[in-house]
TrEMBL record:
This is DeoR/GlpR family DNA-binding transcription regulator. Residues 4-59 form the HTH deoR-type domain. Keywords: DNA-binding, Transcription, Transcription regulation. InterPro entries: Carb_Metab_HTH_regulators, DeoR-like_C, DeoR_HTH, NagB/RpiA_transferase-like, Tscrpt_reg_HTH_DeoR_CS, WH-like_DNA-bd_sf, WH_DNA-bd_sf.
Length: 260
């Protein structure tokens, strides 16, 4: 076996042990240059085996993994997204919060910085973060429990949410495409659509690994979304499609040279 296929096999083996790795980490482990690993990542991406991240790569799986597994991935990226999401809320008094790994980070940020806010949820996963702030009023929707997502879904959940209105809904996504946001879990999309209808504004939180990925259930067109919040800007065509439908793209601002 020539060096490149062997190196690709070693990269995939490393990613199977630690699902996200930086270019610098793999280059040091395999004793090659960063540029070599960048080319390897691109070739593995073209083969559909990995997803590129800023400065690294994520092992691509078929169906999306359960929320407990996702909680350990892309932690720094999700923390950054959560901070940006909190800044968008302004003086909101009531929000609806969806399920997912990134929304757990948003819940932590909300609990740390918000006061006297009503949070309507359908996910048990966000409760531990929210309950640390006694000033928050937490409203939990009933429904059929989905263990993989640790969230309630179904007719009861949707009917319950229809009795409430919110300033914002904050939702995650499995995939971000030109047509809108999609989710791997069909049951979750019905809940998300209801939250969008019952909220004045909607923000979708998604890290860059979700870009140009499509899952079975598209739950939002970009015309229904106020903002996509991410850790980096989508590539030009995707960003253009999102903005053309009226959604804002919120990403970290680059640091200015010499800034403290």
């Amino acid at each position: 076996m020539s060096k490149k296929p062997l190196r690709h096999k070693e990269i995939l083996a490393l990613l199977s042990e630690q699902p996200t790795l930086r270019i610098s980490e793999i280059a040091a482990t395999l004793n090659v240059t960063r540029e070599t690993i960048r080319r390897d990542f691109q070739e593995l991406t073209d083969l559909g085996l990995v997803d590129r991240l800023y400065g690294g790569a994520l092992l691509r799986h078929g169906p999306e993994t359960n929320v407990d597994q996702r909680n350990d991935l892309l932690v720094e990226e999700r923390k950054l997204i959560a901070r940006l999401a909190r800044d968008l809320l302004g003086d909101a008094q009531t929000i609806m919060l969806g399920s997912g790994a990134t929304t757990v980070h948003a819940a932590r940020q909300i609990a740390n910085e918000c006061q006297d806010l009503t949070v309507i949820v359908h996910s048990l996963g966000v409760i531990p973060a929210l309950e640390t702030n006694p000033s928050l009023t937490i409203v939990m929707a009933p429904g059929v429990f989905h263990p993989g997502e640790r969230a309630m879904h179904g007719v009861q959940t949707v009917e319950f949410l229809q009795h409430y209105s919110a300033d914002w809904c904050i939702l995650g996504a499995s995939g971000i495409g030109a047509e809108g946001a999609s989710d791997a879990l069909l049951e979750g999309s019905d809940v998300y659509r209801c939250m969008i209808r019952r909220s004045e504004k909607c923000m979708i939180l998604a890290d860059g690994s979700k870009f140009n990925r499509r899952f079975p259930s598209r739950y939002a067109d970009w015309s229904q979304v106020s903002a996509l919040v991410s850790d980096r800007m989508p590539e030009k065509d995707l960003a253009g499609a999102i903005r053309a439908r009226g959604a804002e793209i919120v990403v970290p601002q680059p640091s200015r040279p010499g800034a403290a």
